[in-house]
Amino acid sequence: LRVPLTLSICNALCCLSQQGRIAFPMDGIEDTKSVMLSDIMTDADGNRSVNWNNCVIPLHHLADLLKYNGQLHQNQVYDTAPSRDRVSLILVRGIGSEHLAIQVDQVIGEEEIVMKQIDGPIPIPPGLAGVTVRANGSIMPIGDVLALIDIAQGRLRCEQSPDLGGETLTALVNAPPMNPTVFIVDDSITVRELLSLSFKKAGFRVEQARDGQEAWERLKSGLFCDLILCDIEMPRMNGLELLDCIQADAKLSSIPIAMITSRGGSKMQRLAAAKGARGYFVKPYIEERLLEASQRLIKGDILLEMATLGEEAEA
C-alpha cells in the first residue's frame, strides 16, 4: 500500500555515489558494511552477489540502478579518496524476505531530513522517492528502496533520458510557449509568498529574490522572466538601483518592470517612471487589478508614463 506523500520528516542514511549525494530512508535499511573486492562473487552471467549473514544477497551498483544526469566535482563531495580494494555496501529490504545489496562509493552517516516530492513537467527518475534540502541549501535526492529492488529484479524499467537533439530539439522549439514567469523582488518573505500564491493561482511561473542585489545576480546569471515586480526600499540594493542596472544592460532592458511599494506619492512615481518603470502598484494592492495589469505589462503596455503623472500633479 503506497500513500501519497507531500512532506514528511524521517531519518535517512546519507551516501555518496558517482560524485553525488543520495539519501535512503532508515526504515528501508537493514545493515551497512565494507567488504573486500575479493569477497564479491560473480556467476557465469556476470551477476554479482555477496555473502551477508550466511545468506547470498544479489549485489548491484547504485549507478546501474539509477539513470539520471547530474554530477558534482569530486573535491566537492569526497573528504577522502575512495578505497580501491574495498567497497561500501548497504543492505536494503523489500517486501517479505526480499533483500538487495547496493554498492555506493561511501557511507557518510545518518541524518534527519525533510522529504519533499518533486512536482513539475519533468517526471521523476525511477528509483527516486523525492528530494530534501540540506542545511547548506543544496538539493539531495532520496532513493526509493522498493523501486530500486524492482529495478534490480527486472520488474521496473530504468532508462536514461536521451540527450536533446534532432527531432526532440525541433519539438521543443516548435512547442507552444510556457506560462509567463514573474520575478518577485521584495525583502519581506510574507509579501513574496502572498504574491507568489496569487500569481501561481493565475497560472504564472514565479521566481523570487530577497533584495535587489540577489535579483541582479540571478538576472546576470541567466534567469529568464517576462515581468519583474520590485519593491523600492530593500537592503544592499534598493528597487530604484536595480532599475538603473537593468535599464543599463542591453540584454535585460526590454523586460517590463513594475514597482510594488507602500510609497504612493506622485514624486516617487515620477522618479520610477523616469528610470524606466512601466508600472507602479501601491500596497495594499487589489489582487484582480494587479493580475490584469501584469498581463498588460507582459503584452507591452506601459501603465506608468511621465506625461500622465505630470497632468495628475497639475490637477
Look at the helices and sheets and give the structural class: alpha/beta
Query: How many DSSP helices?
Result: 10
Beta strand count: 16
Instruction: Please give the radius of gyration in angstroms.
Output: 26 Å
> Which shape, going by the Cα principal axes?
elongated
Percent of residues in beta strands?
25-35%
Distance from N terminus to C terminus (CA atoms, Å) equals 70 Å
Sheet having the most strands: 6 strands, mixed
Order of helices and strands: EEEEEEHHEEEEEHHEHEHEHEHEHH
Average of pLDDT: 80
Low-confidence stretches: 71-79, 160-176, 306-315
Q: Record the strand order, biggest sheet.
A: 3-7-8-6-5-4
Helix content class: 25-40%
Give short descriptive properties of this protein:
about 325 residues, alpha/beta, 10 helices, elongated, disordered C terminus
Describe the SSE topology.
Layout: E1 7-17, E2 20-25, E3 29-36, E4 41-42, E5 48-52, E6 55-61, H1 62-65, H2 74-77, E7 86-93, E8 99-104, E9 106-116, E10 128-133, E11 139-143, H3 145-152, H4 167-174, E12 181-185, H5 189-201, E13 205-209, H6 212-220, E14 227-230, H7 239-247, E15 257-261, H8 266-274, E16 279-282, H9 287-299, H10 306-314
Parallel strand pairs: 6-8, 12-13, 12-14, 14-15, 15-16
Antiparallel strand pairs: 1-2, 1-9, 3-7, 4-5, 5-6, 7-8, 10-11
Helix pairs in contact: 6-7, 8-10
